[in-house]
Description:
The structure is a single chain. By secondary structure, this protein is of the alpha+beta class. It has 5 domains: 33-60 and 278-344, conserved putative lor/sdh protein from methanococcus maripaludis s2 fold; 64-72 and 194-272, Elongation Factor Tu (Ef-tu), domain 3 (Beta Barrel), CATH 2.40.30; 81-188, no CATH class; 362-452, CATH 2.40.50.320; 457-492. The chain is 20% helix and 36% strand. It has helices at 24-31, 41-46, 111-126, 129-141, 146-155, 337-344, 454-480, 482-491, and strands at 37-38, 50-53, 55-58, 62-71, 76-79, 85-90, 98-99, 104-109, 161-165, 170-173, 182-183, 190-193, 197-205, 217-222, 230-241, 247-255, 266-272, 278-283, 288-289, 294-301, 304-315, 319-324, 331-335, 362-373, 378-383, 394-400, 414-423, 426-434. Helix 3 (111-126) packs antiparallel against helix 4 (129-141) and helix 7 packs across helix 8. One of its GO terms (biological process) is plasma membrane copper ion transport.
Amino acid sequence: MDPNYRRDQPGKSPMGMDLIPVYQENETSMDSGPGTITISPDVVNNIGVRTVKAEYLPIHSEIKTVGYVQYDEDKLVHIHPRVEGWVEKLYVKAAGDPIKRGQPLYKLYSPELVNAQEELVLALNRNNVRLIKASEDRLKALQIADSVINQIKQTRKVQQAITFYAPQTGVVDNLNVREGFYVKPGMNLMSVGDLMTVWVEAEIFERQAELVEAGQAVIMTLDYMPGREWLGKVDYVYPTLNDETRTVRVRLRFDNEDYVLKPNMFAQVTIATAEGEEKLMLPTEALIRTGDQDRVVLALGEGKFKSIAVIAGNIGENHVEIISGLEPGEEVVSSAQFLLDSESSKTSDFKRMHHEDSKPQSVWVEAKIESVMAEHRMVTATHSAISEWDWPAMTMDFIVSESIDLSALSKGTQLHMEITKSGTDRYEITEIHIKDNDDGATNQSPVTQSNRPMSSMLDDVQSDSIALNQATNTQKANAEDPEHSYQQHSGM
């Protein structure tokens, strides 16, 4: 319960608890830092402990994600009417039908188209070149094919229904009309998509965005055709982040000459990122990831292991970048590390090594003595906060150095005291300055056995004699009153 109290033989602590033995090998582990464990070579072999070295390697990782096949929107055409009218004939019957460039799509009757044709016929009859040119331009603006215009110029007859043709080769998608439909400008009658090339819309994590750029090679596989791979490239990395999923969209492009890839298919893709600068790397299996901390198990040699905290960077398929916490060449456990970590993390401070270079060995602090255990050379003191050691104000037990006159300390004594760390979790009072009870000033000369004046020591002897007589009278009174004796003891 109190690591400050140690003896070289069995016994009980001031709190009445049995002392437990601490062997030399345990002391050696503690010297290596909190959380250091020692395992025999036989156990190391039995649990299959393997170690690897942290080393600088070029960042070359593959990003695996999923995506959906989409039309190449650069070659996706939407069909909209530019006049009001009725669909008299629909040559395309269902979405997904393949069509070729110039193939008839639908025939439309529109009074506006009839009037435009009559204007052309009238201009031809008058042989007015300007009117003929204006009439032809109007028909072209209404998407009338050149073949239809040439036929009107030859026959000088108006067609009641005009046929419209496919602008490109592909397949029909989003077919929204049937024969007899009334249509007007703004309606999307259908779309024509080219499947010679397709897009794949994939998503990557926010931390992976900087690793992906246009032109990188991509490998894609599909579940319905196992064993086959498609080679493509990154076409575009979208500039915005999805605020809900915290992912970035990436557009991939693949050739599809055999039309095997179909829109909305589910695909697995692997993006080969460019080889970057060398970073300190570890095998991914050596990293222990928890909810709030990443750590590894250091192999200190001679069967000693210790869990330490690290900061991980980019995580690839086989290696992970270590930003801080490790040095090149250090040995890290890569197999059975979870068993070692579970034992080490019970007492580990998760620092690299146990060192005190950033904290002083001793500090001065104001304190008040709560009780004195003269037979153990220990005191219980309440001290102020110690910022140098990140200690809050608290009450704890301290060993008193042999150089200090223990009789100068009693319950209620106000003092400045020097606390020195003499071992692992072992703290000792090595010097004291007792405050003057009259004016609160601090006596700047430390009270030790070696530098106290002879007159002060004689006064202490007289004071001790008086205190001894008073203690004897008190013991007699306590013997006569058992209840009073129990309360005094409890107060202690």
